[in-house]
Amino acid sequence: MDRMVTPEQAVAIMAERGIHFDLIGLRKKAREGKIPGAQKVGGARGIWLIPREWAQSYEKIKSGRPRVKK
């Protein structure tokens, strides 16, 4: 099994786990250095590679104020 996956594959892995993540948001997270081990290959117009392990273990952090039940 490959250790690194494309952003599209990473989003698909997360979707299988019930975590919906926007592809553009994933690329932004990689560009900002918020995905440990993510690498850009192919120069300025290259593609990002995301560690498969990160996609398989990512948990979305809920932020903001909790909803009040009526």
Distance between the termini: 48 Å
β-strand amount: 5-15%
Shape: elongated
Spatial order of strands in the largest sheet: 1-3-2
Helix content: 25-40%
List unreliable stretches of 5+ residues: none
Helical element count?
3
Biggest sheet features: 3 strands, antiparallel
Question: On the 0-100 scale, what is the average pLDDT?
Answer: 91
Could you say which structural class the secondary elements and strand pairing correspond to?
alpha+beta
Radius of gyration: 14 Å
Strand elements, count: 3
List the main descriptive attributes of the protein structure presented here.
single chain, 70 residues, alpha+beta, 3-stranded antiparallel β-sheet, 36% helix, elongated
Description:
By secondary structure, this protein is an alpha+beta fold. The protein is built from 3 helices and 3 strands; from the N terminus they run βααββα. The protein has a 3-stranded antiparallel beta sheet with strand order 1-3-2. The longest helix is centred in the N-terminal third of the chain and has 10 residues, at 7-16. The termini are far apart. The relative contact order is 0.24.
